[in-house]
Amino acid sequence: MKNEELEQYLSQADQSVKDFMAEVLETLGKKISEEEEPLISLQYFGAKLEIKLLSFDGVYD
After folding, report:
1. Of 7, 26, 40, 44, which has the maximum CB count within 10 A?
2. Rounded to an integer, what distance in angstroms lies between the CA atom of residue 18 and that of residue 47?
3. Can you give the pTM of this predicted structure?
4. Residue 16: what are its φ and ψ, rounded to 5°?
5. Which residues contact 49 (CB under 8 A, 6 or more apart)?
6. Which pLDDT tens digit goes with each residue over 5-54?
7. pLDDT for 34-44, tens place per residue?
8. Largest CA distance in the chain
9. Whole-angstrom Cα distance, residue 60 to residue 29?
């Protein structure tokens, strides 16, 4: 699946998914303000995932 497709799914997602993404961004923002690496590690269905903020317009480069 291409990134464009994933972004399209996210833009049309249910509110619970959008709420989750807002929480992820808030958590990453707190890490930036605490001068920590903006990285979250998660486990889901046996998969280990990392979400790393690469940039955020006007907030983080």
Report:
1. 40
2. 21
3. 0.81
4. -65, -35
5. 41, 42, 43
6. 989 999 999 999 999 999 999 999 999 999 999 999 999 999 999 999 99
7. 999 999 999 99
8. 35
9. 9
